[in-house]
Amino acid sequence: xxxxxxxxxxxxxxxxVAGPVATMMLADQGAEVIKVESPHGxxxxxxxxxxxxxxxxxxxxxxxxxxxxxxxxxxxxxEILKRLIATAQVFVHNFRPGIAERMGLGEEIVRAxxxxxxxxxxxxxxxxxxxxxxxxxxxxxxxxxGLADIQRDRDxxxxxxxxxxxxxxxxxxxxxxxxxxxxxARERTGGGQHVRISMxxxxxxxxxxxxxxxxxxxxxxxxxxxxxxxxxxVFATQDRYITAAALSDDEWAGM
Length: 255
Prior knowledge:
Blueprint lengths: L8 E4 L5 H11 L3 E6 L18 H7 L3 E4 L5 H11 L4 E4 L5 H5 L3 H7 L4 E6 L14 H8 L1 H4 L15 H24 L4 E5 H13 L22 E3 L4 E3 L5 H6 L1
Parallel strand pairs: 1-2, 1-4, 2-3, 4-5, 5-6
Antiparallel strand pairs: 7-8
Protein backbone atom coordinates (compact mmCIF):
# COMPACT_ATOMS: atom_id res chain seq x y z
CA UNK A 1 0.00 0.00 0.00
CA UNK A 2 1.46 3.43 -0.93
CA UNK A 3 2.17 5.86 1.90
CA UNK A 4 0.07 8.96 2.49
CA UNK A 5 2.88 11.18 1.16
CA UNK A 6 3.40 9.18 -2.02
CA UNK A 7 4.16 11.48 -4.95
CA UNK A 8 5.60 14.30 -2.83
CA UNK A 9 9.23 15.17 -3.50
CA UNK A 10 11.11 16.86 -0.66
CA UNK A 11 14.51 18.50 -1.06
CA UNK A 12 16.23 18.23 2.31
CA UNK A 13 19.18 20.55 2.88
CA UNK A 14 19.10 20.12 6.67
CA UNK A 15 21.81 18.68 8.91
CA UNK A 16 22.15 17.30 12.45
CA VAL A 17 18.81 16.21 14.02
CA ALA A 18 15.71 18.43 14.04
CA GLY A 19 15.49 19.04 10.29
CA PRO A 20 16.57 15.56 9.19
CA VAL A 21 14.11 13.84 11.56
CA ALA A 22 11.27 16.02 10.26
CA THR A 23 11.96 15.04 6.66
CA MET A 24 12.58 11.43 7.69
CA MET A 25 9.03 11.29 9.05
CA LEU A 26 7.77 12.42 5.64
CA ALA A 27 9.93 9.74 4.00
CA ASP A 28 8.50 7.11 6.36
CA GLN A 29 5.06 8.17 5.13
CA GLY A 30 6.00 7.67 1.49
CA ALA A 31 7.50 10.98 0.38
CA GLU A 32 10.56 10.93 -1.87
CA VAL A 33 13.12 12.78 0.21
CA ILE A 34 16.38 13.76 -1.46
CA LYS A 35 18.99 14.69 1.12
CA VAL A 36 21.39 17.20 -0.38
CA GLU A 37 24.73 17.25 1.44
CA SER A 38 28.03 19.01 0.97
CA PRO A 39 30.89 16.84 -0.34
CA HIS A 40 32.03 16.48 3.30
CA GLY A 41 28.62 15.13 4.34
CA UNK A 42 26.31 15.89 7.24
CA UNK A 43 28.30 16.21 10.48
CA UNK A 44 26.19 13.40 11.96
CA UNK A 45 28.01 10.98 9.66
CA UNK A 46 31.22 11.63 11.57
CA UNK A 47 30.06 11.38 15.19
CA UNK A 48 30.79 7.66 15.51
CA UNK A 49 32.30 4.89 13.47
CA UNK A 50 30.21 3.35 10.74
CA UNK A 51 30.41 1.92 7.26
CA UNK A 52 31.00 4.50 4.54
CA UNK A 53 29.70 7.31 6.74
CA UNK A 54 26.58 5.38 7.73
CA UNK A 55 26.43 5.04 11.50
CA UNK A 56 23.54 4.47 13.88
CA UNK A 57 23.18 8.17 14.77
CA UNK A 58 23.01 9.25 11.14
CA UNK A 59 20.71 6.41 10.12
CA UNK A 60 18.25 7.12 12.93
CA UNK A 61 17.73 10.60 11.46
CA UNK A 62 17.91 9.83 7.74
CA UNK A 63 16.38 6.45 6.88
CA UNK A 64 14.32 6.06 3.70
CA UNK A 65 16.02 8.99 1.95
CA UNK A 66 17.92 9.30 -1.29
CA UNK A 67 21.23 11.12 -1.05
CA UNK A 68 23.11 13.60 -3.21
CA UNK A 69 26.49 15.20 -2.51
CA UNK A 70 26.94 18.51 -4.30
CA UNK A 71 29.01 21.65 -3.75
CA UNK A 72 26.43 24.43 -3.54
CA UNK A 73 29.21 27.02 -3.41
CA UNK A 74 29.96 26.29 -7.06
CA UNK A 75 27.87 27.51 -9.98
CA UNK A 76 27.51 23.98 -11.34
CA UNK A 77 26.37 22.61 -7.98
CA UNK A 78 23.82 25.38 -7.54
CA GLU A 79 22.48 24.74 -11.05
CA ILE A 80 22.01 21.04 -10.24
CA LEU A 81 19.97 21.95 -7.17
CA LYS A 82 17.87 24.48 -9.08
CA ARG A 83 16.94 21.81 -11.61
CA LEU A 84 15.79 19.63 -8.72
CA ILE A 85 13.80 22.50 -7.17
CA ALA A 86 11.70 22.66 -10.33
CA THR A 87 10.57 19.08 -9.67
CA ALA A 88 9.91 19.34 -5.91
CA GLN A 89 6.91 20.21 -3.76
CA VAL A 90 8.87 20.94 -0.56
CA PHE A 91 12.23 22.65 0.07
CA VAL A 92 13.65 22.43 3.61
CA HIS A 93 16.79 23.96 5.11
CA ASN A 94 18.07 24.78 8.60
CA PHE A 95 20.69 27.38 7.72
CA ARG A 96 21.21 30.26 10.09
CA PRO A 97 19.31 33.45 9.11
CA GLY A 98 20.64 35.08 5.96
CA ILE A 99 22.78 32.18 4.75
CA ALA A 100 20.22 30.79 2.30
CA GLU A 101 19.90 34.23 0.73
CA ARG A 102 23.69 34.58 0.43
CA MET A 103 23.86 31.16 -1.22
CA GLY A 104 21.23 32.15 -3.76
CA LEU A 105 18.57 29.91 -2.20
CA GLY A 106 16.30 32.42 -0.48
CA GLU A 107 12.55 32.09 -0.78
CA GLU A 108 12.19 34.56 -3.64
CA ILE A 109 14.72 32.74 -5.80
CA VAL A 110 13.35 29.28 -5.00
CA ARG A 111 9.76 30.41 -5.57
CA ALA A 112 10.73 31.95 -8.91
CA UNK A 113 11.73 28.43 -9.98
CA UNK A 114 8.70 26.65 -8.46
CA UNK A 115 5.87 29.07 -7.65
CA UNK A 116 3.82 26.69 -5.47
CA UNK A 117 6.65 25.15 -3.47
CA UNK A 118 6.41 24.82 0.32
CA UNK A 119 9.54 26.61 1.54
CA UNK A 120 10.61 25.59 5.05
CA UNK A 121 13.25 27.28 7.19
CA UNK A 122 14.14 25.79 10.58
CA UNK A 123 16.20 27.94 12.95
CA UNK A 124 17.32 27.82 16.55
CA UNK A 125 15.92 31.12 17.80
CA UNK A 126 14.00 32.64 14.89
CA UNK A 127 15.19 35.11 12.28
CA UNK A 128 15.48 38.21 14.49
CA UNK A 129 16.73 39.05 17.96
CA UNK A 130 19.99 38.81 19.93
CA UNK A 131 20.34 35.04 19.53
CA UNK A 132 19.24 34.73 15.90
CA UNK A 133 22.72 34.00 14.56
CA UNK A 134 23.88 31.79 17.41
CA UNK A 135 24.21 28.04 17.07
CA UNK A 136 21.40 26.10 18.72
CA UNK A 137 21.99 22.82 20.50
CA UNK A 138 19.48 20.75 22.42
CA UNK A 139 20.83 21.44 25.96
CA UNK A 140 20.83 25.19 25.30
CA UNK A 141 17.22 25.09 24.10
CA UNK A 142 16.26 22.98 27.13
CA UNK A 143 17.75 25.69 29.36
CA UNK A 144 16.34 28.72 27.53
CA UNK A 145 12.84 27.28 27.11
CA GLY A 146 12.48 26.56 30.84
CA LEU A 147 12.51 22.78 30.53
CA ALA A 148 15.62 22.41 32.71
CA ASP A 149 13.96 24.57 35.37
CA ILE A 150 10.80 22.42 35.32
CA GLN A 151 13.01 19.38 35.98
CA ARG A 152 14.89 21.04 38.84
CA ASP A 153 15.59 19.13 42.03
CA ARG A 154 12.96 19.94 44.66
CA ASP A 155 15.48 19.98 47.51
CA UNK A 156 18.47 21.75 45.97
CA UNK A 157 16.79 23.80 43.22
CA UNK A 158 19.43 22.60 40.75
CA UNK A 159 18.08 22.57 37.16
CA UNK A 160 18.29 19.24 35.35
CA UNK A 161 18.37 18.25 31.71
CA UNK A 162 16.21 15.62 30.05
CA UNK A 163 18.78 13.11 28.84
CA UNK A 164 17.26 12.70 25.41
CA UNK A 165 17.43 15.39 22.74
CA UNK A 166 13.81 16.29 23.33
CA UNK A 167 14.09 19.81 21.90
CA UNK A 168 15.35 18.45 18.57
CA UNK A 169 12.60 15.84 18.37
CA UNK A 170 9.86 18.25 19.42
CA UNK A 171 11.00 20.65 16.70
CA UNK A 172 11.04 17.79 14.19
CA UNK A 173 7.47 16.79 15.04
CA UNK A 174 6.34 20.42 14.85
CA UNK A 175 8.02 20.89 11.48
CA UNK A 176 6.66 17.66 9.99
CA UNK A 177 3.11 18.58 11.02
CA UNK A 178 3.50 22.12 9.67
CA UNK A 179 4.80 20.81 6.35
CA UNK A 180 1.86 18.44 5.91
CA UNK A 181 -0.54 21.27 6.83
CA UNK A 182 1.11 23.51 4.22
CA UNK A 183 0.82 20.75 1.62
CA UNK A 184 -2.87 20.37 2.47
CA ALA A 185 -3.36 24.12 2.03
CA ARG A 186 -1.46 23.91 -1.26
CA GLU A 187 -3.90 21.28 -2.53
CA ARG A 188 -6.83 23.56 -1.68
CA THR A 189 -5.45 26.89 -2.85
CA GLY A 190 -2.72 26.05 -5.33
CA GLY A 191 -0.27 28.25 -3.45
CA GLY A 192 2.85 27.42 -1.47
CA GLN A 193 3.67 28.81 1.94
CA HIS A 194 6.79 29.74 3.85
CA VAL A 195 6.90 27.59 6.99
CA ARG A 196 9.11 29.11 9.68
CA ILE A 197 9.97 26.94 12.69
CA SER A 198 12.36 27.77 15.52
CA MET A 199 13.50 25.26 18.13
CA UNK A 200 12.93 27.75 20.95
CA UNK A 201 9.38 28.55 19.82
CA UNK A 202 8.54 24.86 19.42
CA UNK A 203 9.73 24.03 22.95
CA UNK A 204 8.05 27.01 24.64
CA UNK A 205 4.76 26.09 22.97
CA UNK A 206 5.21 22.45 23.98
CA UNK A 207 5.94 23.36 27.60
CA UNK A 208 3.39 26.13 28.11
CA UNK A 209 0.83 24.19 30.23
CA UNK A 210 3.53 23.07 32.70
CA UNK A 211 5.89 26.03 32.64
CA UNK A 212 3.79 29.14 32.18
CA UNK A 213 0.11 28.63 33.08
CA UNK A 214 0.41 31.72 35.30
CA UNK A 215 0.95 33.83 32.15
CA UNK A 216 -2.05 32.50 30.24
CA UNK A 217 -4.78 34.95 31.33
CA UNK A 218 -4.22 38.65 30.69
CA UNK A 219 -4.49 40.63 33.92
CA UNK A 220 -3.91 37.61 36.14
CA UNK A 221 -0.23 37.04 35.42
CA UNK A 222 2.08 35.93 38.20
CA UNK A 223 5.72 34.90 38.26
CA UNK A 224 5.96 31.35 36.86
CA UNK A 225 8.75 30.56 39.31
CA UNK A 226 6.41 31.16 42.28
CA UNK A 227 4.61 27.86 41.75
CA UNK A 228 5.76 24.74 43.56
CA UNK A 229 7.76 22.29 41.50
CA UNK A 230 5.62 19.25 40.68
CA UNK A 231 6.53 15.92 42.28
CA UNK A 232 8.65 13.55 40.24
CA UNK A 233 6.40 10.59 41.18
CA VAL A 234 9.34 8.20 41.52
CA PHE A 235 9.26 6.08 44.67
CA ALA A 236 11.86 3.73 46.16
CA THR A 237 10.73 0.23 47.12
CA GLN A 238 12.73 -2.62 48.66
CA ASP A 239 14.05 -3.92 45.33
CA ARG A 240 13.51 -1.22 42.69
CA TYR A 241 12.04 2.17 41.86
CA ILE A 242 8.41 2.51 40.81
CA THR A 243 6.09 5.27 39.62
CA ALA A 244 2.43 5.66 40.51
CA ALA A 245 -0.06 8.46 40.01
CA ALA A 246 -3.75 9.18 40.62
CA LEU A 247 -5.51 12.25 39.25
CA SER A 248 -9.02 11.70 40.63
CA ASP A 249 -10.57 10.51 43.91
CA ASP A 250 -11.72 7.30 42.22
CA GLU A 251 -8.21 6.58 40.93
CA TRP A 252 -6.76 7.32 44.38
CA ALA A 253 -9.21 4.96 46.02
CA GLY A 254 -8.39 2.28 43.48
CA MET A 255 -4.67 2.67 43.94
